[in-house]
Amino acid sequence: MRAMATTYFSKPLAPLSRALNTLALAxxxxxxxxxxxxxxxxxxxxxxxxLLQRVAFVMVGMGFLMNVRYGxxxxxxxxVVWSALAGAIASGRQVLLHIAPGxxxxxxxxxxxxxxxxxxxLFFLVLVFAGIMLMLDTKAVDQSSxxxxxxITRIVLGLFLLMVxxxxxxxxxxxGFGPCEDDPVNYLWLSLKGVFPPGLA
Length: 201
Fold this sequence. Notes:
Elements: H1 2-8, H2 13-41, H3 48-70, H4 74-97, H5 115-136, H6 151-175, H7 188-192
């Protein structure tokens, strides 16, 4: 198996495939980072559907991460596809909730669209990308041992994992171990411990 993987990754397509998966992972990291920055900078606490979309982006990123570390595999792309479909359902549901005339939507818009609308567009693009890569990576071979990574790839992997941990921490602060509020106005754990007054936390 290792010999087959080594042979595949010596072919001209392999570096391009890995570069594209790294670029896709960087894009997912940027999406998570932007959502996290917006949450902290403008005190816009994500709703339950927003959190589901973030989980879907994390799982999409995990599929790309597996491709980068262990080589492209239909299993990894399958994780990307199913996660993107789940995210599209969650974001599509939120779009439909605020589609009525006069509905201002949840949160402030970014470049004319709310984040859940951008999420729906991005999940669609992820599905298109995964479909193309599945056709290109026809000789994909998964292997058990991690592949070596250059500095840029390591930075992308580290930033992605950092965004995952940051979003996990903020979700725990917001919801604790119970269900999240439909329209959150503060962070549950911070308000309970008196770190911030209600409405500011």
